[in-house]
Amino acid sequence: MNYEIVTLGKKDLPIYFGFNALRKYCRATGTSLQKLGSLGTEMSLDDIVELIFHGTQEGHRRAGIDFNLDSDQIADLLDGDQKGMARSMELFAEHMGITFSDGETKKNDPGKKFNSRKVKK
């Protein structure tokens, strides 16, 4: 199963935003299927942390690694790590094929210095 590794704080974590991660995010936040289209563009800080939490939880499941973090610990890892948060949201957009208001779908830019790599199991 595919997932990527993203660095949050100083931890390398598997992350994947697929149907299962979105299902769990929607259940946890009460987000409807109709509102999923605005994810990534109209999100609160709580939404971002919850989304990254569920993405890393799903990444761990796909990697076959035990997941022992909670939302508060994900938020702690994001403290002062704007690159990690930005990269997580870019991965979300890539996995979901989200088009932003500038009309472009976010793609991986090999010139950017992010600590993530695609892993195929």
Description:
With 121 residues, this protein is α+β, with helices and mostly antiparallel strands. It has one domain (2-120). It contains 4 helices and 3 strands; from the N terminus they run E-E-H-H-H-H-E. The chain has a 3-stranded antiparallel beta sheet with strand order 2-1-3. Helix 1 (19-29) runs antiparallel to helix 2.
SSE succession: EEHHHHE
Contiguous low-pLDDT stretches (5 residues minimum) are: 105-116
Taken together, the total number of domains comes to 1
Shape: globular
What is the tally of helical segments?
Answer: 4
Q: What kind of sheet is the major sheet?
A: 3 strands, antiparallel
The strand count comes to 3
On the 0 to 100 scale, the average pLDDT is 82
User: Biggest sheet, strands in spatial order?
Assistant: 2-1-3
